[in-house]
Amino acid sequence: RTGSTRDALDAVARSAFVNYHLHRNSQIAAHARERDQSNFVANNDFEVDTTGWSGVNATISRTTTYRFRGVASLQIVKTAAQTLAHAKTANLDFAATTIVVTLLAAVISGATTAFRVSITDSSGNEYFSPDTTLTAADWTRIVLTTAISVVNVFCDSTTVNCDSTTYTCATEGGDLRIYPQYNGAGDVTVVIDDVELVKNSSALYDEMI
Fold this sequence. Notes:
Layout: H1 5-13, E1 18-22, E2 28-32, E3 53-56, E4 59-63, E5 73-78, E6 86-92, E7 98-109, E8 116-120, E9 126-128, E10 140-147, E11 152-155, E12 169-172, E13 174-179, E14 188-199, E15 205-208
Antiparallel strand pairs: 1-2, 2-15, 3-6, 4-5, 5-14, 6-13, 7-10, 7-14, 8-9, 8-13, 11-12
C-alpha cells in the first residue's frame, strides 16, 4: 500500500524483516513483513511486567529508564562468574519450521562483544545468532533466521487409558534465550525490547516513501 513517510518508516521499524529498493522515479520502496504476524512471544514489549520471562543465572527486571518504544524494556543483569547467564521465555508453541527472531538490544553497563540470541527445539538443540557487539549509545537490531527441525508431541497426562483412542495432545516447543555475553566473563547489563518470533512466511506488503 502507499502511505506517508511516517507510515513507511513506522512499518520498517516494526517489521520482522525488511529490504529496500529505489525506483526509477526516485521513490524508495520498503518491503516489510507484517509486525506481530503470529508472534509466538506473548510478552514482547514488557509494557506491564515480565510475565513469561525468567532469568537463568541472571537477574531480570522491567525498567522504564530505557526503552526503544513504549514505556519499558527488559533489563538483564549478568555477573562475571556466570558465563552462560541468560534470560528466556520458555515452551514457545511453534511447529517445525523456519523462524525469524528479531529484537532491539543495548548495553547499559560493562562491555559485550558476544551478545547472542538462541532458539532451542524440544530435543534440546540450540540455534544461535552470530556474536554481536552492543553499544550504550544506540539500540542494535538483532536478527536470527533458522530452521527448527525437531518438535516433539506430548500428551497432557502421564496416565493413558488404553480403552480409548482419543488423546489430548499438544506441541512441545522450545525456548527463546537472550545471552548478554555468551561464554564470557565480566559483569554485563543489557536491555531488550520489541521481541518477535515469527514464521518465515512470504507474505509481504509495500510502504512507499
